[in-house]
Specification:
By secondary structure, this protein is of the alpha/beta class. The chain contains twelve helices and twelve strands.
């Protein structure tokens, strides 16, 4: 039998999709399952965005587009970054991607090879480590600690850089923790990176519009001293409830842009045309739906944190961003993945065990509050009953 090259044996998983599949199978078998596992807004895509895609199809936008994306969308991305983050970005540095993961894949492929090291947040989005291992590079976890409010530590991050470090991956607001790194910490990190001019940075800011309690998102695009080696990742999936549309974008320094363009040509050719026109409507159109969605997430956030802190053996700090809570379940006596599995199979509540997000995730679960308040309250009640019946 033919065998794929060994690199394919190193590809990991995003277990949220495995949990989703199991939850779906249980539901199809007649079980009542509440899914707090998948990171997907439960609100629909705003109607004006849907209509823009329909109109694009009626207008004949059925063919290939440039691999980097249509210019009007790249211009809309640049306008959004200026309006929202007060940074200047040329549309010529913007690349339209089929979701956020492709930017991760491109950046990691660009700098990952045997002998290289790539730093990534842990607990963090599992695709970071998966793709690093695929390239043969050594993944180096940056510990993301509860005592720091799940913000990254500049001191710890800089201390992990060695002569073999090629890329540092950062994520704020963060998945799975909901942590938001304050500006002072980012300042310290950028200042420290001046001693490492050959290290590139990938800043995953896909949750950049999702902050609470007056917290501000601070983009790494605002630091001109690293712009020549910074890759910025963003997209429409979370902000505009467009997960299935597969629309992302990234900003690349001039030296890397052409390499990323060639990778696009060799892999996905281009993002589908109608989705790109929908993206313009999302970015340039009314933001009322985004405001309403964030107000609802904020309400659910407070519900879930209050409820988690009432559960036996569970504590949860209040997340400052994204739509995830990352409760500490160490005092329950359960291992995280075993508890997540038992909650799904026995209590009908889908969550994700912390170790699915890295070696520092043990002792935690991830709960998405991108589900209705009613379902969140039902899920918390079931979790409480399960933990009361099954102490360890």
């Amino acid at each position: 039998m033919p065998k794929p090259v060994p690199a394919f044996g190193r590809i990991g998983e995003e277990n949220a999709f495995a949990v989703l599949a199991r939850a779906t199978a249980l539901a199809q078998a007649g079980r009542d399952v509440i899914n707090l596992g998948i990171g997907q807004p439960d609100m629909p895509t705003p109607p004006h965005v849907v209509e823009a895609a329909v109109q694009a199809l009626r207008d004949g936008h059925h063919g290939y587009t440039p691999a980097t994306g249509i210019l009007p969308l790249r211009e809309a991305v640049a306008r959004d970054l200026h309006r929202r983050l007060a940074v200047e970005v040329s549309p010529e540095s913007v690349m339209i991607m089929p979701g956020g993961k492709v930017t991760m894949f491109a950046a990691i492929l660009m700098f990952g090879e045997p002998g290289a090291e790539i730093l990534y947040p842990d607990p963090g989005f599992p695709i970071y480590r998966s793709m690093i291992e695929f390239t043969g590079a050594t993944p180096v976890p940056i510990p993301i600690r509860e005592e720091n409010g799940f913000a990254f530590s500049a001191e710890e991050t800089l201390a992990l850089i060695t002569p073999r470090t090629r890329l540092v991956i950062l994520n704020s607001p963060a998945n799975p923790t909901g942590g938001v790194t304050p500006k002072a910490e980012i300042d310290r990190l950028v200042a420290g990176l001046s001693a490492h001019p050959d290290v590139a940075v990938l800043s995953d800011e896909i949750y950049g519009t999702m902050t609470y309690d007056g917290e501000r998102h601070h983009t790494l695009l605002a630091y001109p001293e690293i712009r020549d080696r910074l890759i910025y990742l963003d997209g429409a999936s979370k902000t505009y409830a467009m997960t299935g549309w597969r629309l992302g974008w990234s900003v690349w320094p001039v030296p890397f842009y052409e390499a990323a363009r060639k990778l696009a040509v060799n892999s996905f050719s281009c993002v589908n045309a109608a989705t790109q026109w929908a993206g313009i409507a999302a970015l340039d159109g009314p933001q009322d739906a985004v405001t309403a969605m964030m107000a609802e997430f904020d309400r659910r956030r407070l519900l879930v944190v209050e409820g988690l802190n009432r559960l036996p053996g569970v504590s949860c700090i209040t997340p400052k961003g994204a739509f995830y809570a990352f409760p500490n379940i160490a005092r329950t006596g359960w291992k995280a993945k075993a508890l997540a599995s038992a909650l799904l199979e026995e209590a009908g509540v889908a969550t994700i065990g912390g170790p699915d997000f890295g070696v520092h995730g043990e002792g935690y679960l991830r709960l998405s509050y991108a589900n209705s308040a009613e379902n969140i309250l039902r899920a918390l009640e079931r979790m409480g009953e399960f933990l009361a019946r099954n102490p360890r």
